[in-house]
């Protein structure tokens, strides 16, 4: 049986982290390990993670950002698959088993993600999601029956909950740390995965609650400013023919970028998981 490494990055919001971990423990019968990376929390999160007595805990004395923290965690995982999970999520019955089934039934799929509501449009449900967390499990199970086995190949996926085959990481490496503290590193990862020959799958029969911007609310800079800065970095890296403002406000077509690339050049697209 395969092992999944569930990698959770934290930066304060202990309340959300506890809720997330409790939901994983409740709804995940599949073999898994926890790997936690804490980006200099000061609200008791590190002590809580150590008190769990399971999983690996990496504590940073500075905020390494999303990409930097995830890359640290990727160096410590031992699973056949890596599940990136934001600490402001709540998982639901059968979530991991269904995501695994997506990848295992199609060898071309390297990355899979669920549907949610507070998420980019490509993975956003059209009905508004459940009315509250008390209805979450029932809503997710009802949706799982309605959309059993259904989904679609996405041009990108968002990193709030992303199941990745370890083969993808071997092929393209980790996340690009220029996108600090967060935003567009998941876009970049998905583009590199597609150039590397993998497909992305959005599982319509899996629903995971996402609070949305749970960590960014803790930062001193506002979310829009940070997002625009990384949109500009993304525009420069991939030569996207739109301004940073247009990319951030109206989006872009990742397939336009992927279709320009005729082969995977490791020198350009592989990001090594450096020590430290």
Automatic annotation (TrEMBL):
Family affiliation: Belongs to the glycosyltransferase 2 family.
tRNA-binding as a keyword of this entry, yes or no, is no
Its annotated pathway?
Cell wall biogenesis; cell wall polysaccharide biosynthesis
Superkingdom as given in the UniProt entry: Bacteria
Q: What is this protein called?
A: Glycosyl transferase
Q: Which InterPro entries match?
A: Glyco_trans_2-like, Nucleotide-diphossugar_trans
Q: Quote the PANTHER family the UniProt record gives.
A: GALACTOFURANOSYLTRANSFERASE GLFT2, RHAMNOSYLTRANSFERASE WBBL
> Keywords for this entry?
Glycosyltransferase, Transferase
A single GO molecular-function term is:
transferase activity
Ranges of residues in domain Glycosyltransferase 2-like: 5-116
What Pfam families does the record point to?
Glycos_transf_2
Recorded hits in SUPFAM superfamilies, A to Z, give: Nucleotide-diphospho-sugar transferases
